[in-house]
Amino acid sequence: MGGLQRNAALVLLYDPTNTAVQYQAREFNWIGTPQQEVGMMIVSARKPVNTVEDLKKVELTAASTARNAPTSVYPRMLNALYGAKFKVIEGYEGSQTGLLAIERGEVDAYVSGGSSAPLRARYEPWLKDGTARLVMQMGMTRDRAYPDAPTAIEAMTDPAAKQMFQIAFTEQVMGRPFLFPPKVPAERVKAFRDAFDATMKDEQFLADAKSQKVEIDPVSGADIAALLERVYATPPDVVAKLRELVK
To answer: SS3 of 59, please?
Structure first.
C-alpha cells in the first residue's frame, strides 16, 4: 500500500505527453482518503471585496509559490472563466509567507489549495476581527465551518467552466489518498477498503483526531475511483481549454 500526492492522479490528464509518468491512475486500487481539502480565498479588508461579484470589479494582488501551484492556477482560472481581476505574485515560500504578505500589505489576497490546521489558525482571527474576509472556497463542496461562502463551482454559470473547476478540484477531494497498485486481488482490495471505511467511523480514532485538531472528512476508495472515471470522460474540448489555462 502506498500514499500519493493528491495531484498524481491527474498528471496525464493535464499532460498526456509526459513520458516520465509510467502509470494510469484509473488502474490503481484506491483505498480512500481520511481528508478532503477545501481551499480558501482570503482577501484583506483593505480592499472593497465582500462578495464574489466584487471580484469582477476590484483588482487584487495574490501571493503564490509557483505558476503550477493551486495558489496561482486557481486565481488565473477565475480571471479567465469568471472575469476576476487577480494579479498573481509568485515566488513566496508557502502558505504562511503568503498570509504574512497580506499582513504586511504586500498583497491583497491568498487563494489556498487546502485548509490545514496551521493555515486556519493564522487566518481565522482575521475573519473574526474583520482584518480579512473569506470570499470564496476552492473545492467541490463548502467547508462545514464556513457554510456562507460559495465555492468557485457555484459561482460559475457556464457549464464548461463548472466542469473545468470540477476537474481542478478533483485533487482536493482526493486529499491524502491511500492505494494499492493494479492487479491486487479484488478480495484483498475489498478487505482493506472495508477496514479503512470502518476506521473513519471509529470513535477512538475520531477522538484522537479531534484532540490533535485534525479534520476527518473521508472519501471512500470506490468514490475516488468513480470520480476519476468521470473526470477522464470529460469532453476533449473542455480538457484542452483547461490545459491551456493551467500552463
So the answer is: coil
Supply the pLDDT for residue 116.
83
Q: What span, in angstroms and rounded, lies between the C-alpha atoms of 24 and 221?
A: 16
Paired strand residues for 42: 110, 134
Question: What average pLDDT does range 218-238 have in this prediction?
Answer: 95
Query: Is-contact 62 88, C-beta < 8 A?
Result: yes
Give the H/E segment covering residue 198: helix 186-199
One-letter amino acid for residue 241 of the chain = K
The answer on pLDDT for 213 being more than 90 is no
Task: Give the DSSP H/E element, type plus range, for residue 63.
Answer: strand 60-64
Among candidates 6, 63, 52, 1, which has minimal Cα distance to 29? 1
Q: List the 178-180 sheet strands across, edge first.
A: 2-3, 178-180, 29-33, 219-220
